[in-house]
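Exercise 7.
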Amino acid sequence: WHSSMSSNDKLEETVEWMLERVPDLRRVNGVEDLEEDEYLIAYKCGYNDFHYCKRLPSGQWWHKMGSSRTRRISEKAVYADTWLHGKYDSDTAFFAKKIRK
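Solution. The predicted structure, written as tokens, is:
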């Protein structure tokens, strides 16, 4: 996924792609926009990769890198300008996703 596009351009392109293909996903401003049956996802892009974090109903944030195990991440880190030492430097897109029952 190497291209001359900026991280923010990649973010908008991939957000559009996801919204077209995932019926129960919608873009939101943050946790205040969630409905009772949804959880929050934070998403960023970088030079050649993307990353996301999931907020559980308990308020805890979790993320997973590649083949590593899922790990808890602080809310402060989720709302930081960049993630993982600057690797993901786009703006942050937030999504609401329906909780599977």
